[in-house]
Structure to design on (521 residues):
């Protein structure tokens, strides 16, 4: 059975107040079902609970109410079936690129020969050939995020969670990384949840774009992207793309205004 | 003027470091040889070197040095063997921390030297007592510092390990320990320095061998040259062990320097 179907059922998250202040409603009850192999991007203003939602799916945080099901099983703790690429750089600084990518495989006790073959193949896929023995400190930000993506993928998770993985990169590098990730996804077909601030990035990769409202976060729009795969970067200049972009820009702008006036 | 935090060339660094030693000895020589300080209170550098040479060639001081080094290394190793695993457990598991932390924090302030009379009562004047002084002086410090270091491990690295399928033990073995290994080595280097002060105190009281014993003997002979020589030997050994520790850390943790 092909797996990777995710179901988020009325999940909400309230953080207790800091210094006796009012509690923060980070996420309103949110319901969402994701089919296997969907590439979902999530757009929303800063602080609307995107990271919170992803962390709950990963099992790193618990919802205040509701539950998350992956292939029908309830998520209670983090596990290898949900790979995550974080907003911050989280490579293990004491392991080189090769060892970082091998981390999950080692943890599962995959035999050495098989493990090395898998790691080598991902080193190639993310274009880090020649850098296997480098420490994370010796890599650029883009290379670190590529390693982090390879590290998550090498573990063969059912669902991949990416939290603004390209947020700190310049535009050119960011475009290349999008093509790289999209290429890998088109070949390997995984369920992906991808958080971003960038509307073009969201449309370019997604089969479905979710727009979240300003805090307290909830899903405000759910828009299918019918551009055919495999996608080439030139798709960004087509009229269909521009129309989607115009529509999403409107949706986001309303929320950004709300978020800004709230403070 | 150099800019804040701007690095300097290696040769310049060594030169500056050596020049302060030279300046220090020069001032000392000026004060003593120039007759500003009486010989009874402070020997001059030349007498100190002569006395030191006598100590080494005629009075078997090398054996004292060996004795002291072995006591420090022995007591310190025992302390590290107990303290590092306990510190890691305390840092990793909050109930363990809650159980031990208050007592260790209290015990840390008990002066090791004040235990010497008690330890002599319990363990006699032998080696066990010397090792125990160093053990007591070091173990609580190491436990606490290691626990703090491990407890402050970057949470995002721990979370990354969990999402890669690591279990709780895997997180301890493959994240908490390697992430903090350089810091733990650094803590050991620091506490080893303190262990040196405990051993000398232990040897000042009821000992028939060791650098501290030589110093107390020299005091009754008013041989300040010998005392200063003993102190300088301790400083030198400290400097060497520090240097070795740093070199070892560089070799063991190349990722730190990259
Ligand atoms: N551990 C926490 N304790 C208290 N409040 C928190 C905690 N984590 C998040 N929050 C609050 O929850 C809200 C949503 O945070 P979250 O990190 O999910 O936002 P985000 O959408 O990822 O924002 P950004 O795009 O800036 O990363 C914020 O208002 C934040 O202050
Ligand atoms: Mg975020």
């Amino acid at each position: 059975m092909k797996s990777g179907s995710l179901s988020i059922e009325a999940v909400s998250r309230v953080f207790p107040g800091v210094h006796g202040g009012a509690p923060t409603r980070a996420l309103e009850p949110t319901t969402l079902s994701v089919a296997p192999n969907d590439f979902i991007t999530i757009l929303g203003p800063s602080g609307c609970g995107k990271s919170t939602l992803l962390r709950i799916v990963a099992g790193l945080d618990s919802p205040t109410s509701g539950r998350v099901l992956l292939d029908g099983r309830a998520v209670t703790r983090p596990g290898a079936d949900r790979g995550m690429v974080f907003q911050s750089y989280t490579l293990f600084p004491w392991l080189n690129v090769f060892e970082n990518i091998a981390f999950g495989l080692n943890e599962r006790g995959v035999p050495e020969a098989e493990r090395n073959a898998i790691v080598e193949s991902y080193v190639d896929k993310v274009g880090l050939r020649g850098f296997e023995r480098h420490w994370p400190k010796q890599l650029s930000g883009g290379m670190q995020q590529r390693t982090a993506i390879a590290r998550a993928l090498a573990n063969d998770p059912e669902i991949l969670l990416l939290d603004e993985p390209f947020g700190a990169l310049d535009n050119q590098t960011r475009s290349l990384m999008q093509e790289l990730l999209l290429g890998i996804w088109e070949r390997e077909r995984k369920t992906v949840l991808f958080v971003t601030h960038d509307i073009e990035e969201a449309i370019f990769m997604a089969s479905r774009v979710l727009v979240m409202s300003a805090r307290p976060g909830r899903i405000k729009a759910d828009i299918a992207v019918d551009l055919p795969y495999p996608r080439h970067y030139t798709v960004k200049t087509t009229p269909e793309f521009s129309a989607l972009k115009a529509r999403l820009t409107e949706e986001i702008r309303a929320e950004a205004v709300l978020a800004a006036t709230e403070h | 003027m150099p800019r804040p935090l701007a690095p300097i060339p290696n040769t310049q660094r060594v030169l500056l470091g050596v020049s302060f030693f030279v300046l220090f000895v020069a001032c000392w020589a000026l004060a003593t040889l120039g007759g500003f300080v009486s010989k009874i209170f402070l020997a001059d550098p030349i007498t100190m070197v002569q006395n030191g040479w006598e100590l080494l060639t005629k009075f078997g001081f090398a054996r004292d040095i060996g004795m002291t080094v072995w006591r420090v290394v022995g007591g310190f190793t025992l302390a590290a063997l107990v303290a590092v695993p306990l510190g890691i457990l305390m840092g990793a598991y909050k109930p363990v921390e809650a159980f031990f932390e208050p007592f260790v924090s209290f015990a840390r302030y008990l002066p090791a030297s004040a235990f010497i009379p008690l330890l002599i009562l319990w363990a006699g004047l032998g080696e066990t007592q010397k090792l125990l002084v160093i053990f007591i002086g070091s173990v609580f410090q190491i436990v606490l510092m290691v626990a703090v270091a491990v407890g402050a491990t970057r949470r995002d690295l721990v979370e990354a390990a969990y999402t890669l399928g690591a279990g709780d033990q895997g997180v301890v073995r493959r994240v908490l320990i390697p992430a903090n290994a350089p810091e733990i080595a650094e803590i050991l280097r620091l506490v080893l320095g303190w262990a040196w002060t405990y051993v000398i105190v232990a040897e000042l009281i009821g000992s028939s061998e060791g650098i501290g014993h030589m110093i107390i003997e020299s005091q009754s002979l008013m041989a300040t040259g010998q005392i200063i020589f003993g102190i300088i030997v301790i400083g030198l050994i400290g400097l060497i062990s520090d240097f070795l520790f740093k070199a070892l850390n560089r070799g063991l943790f190349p990722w730190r320097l990259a």
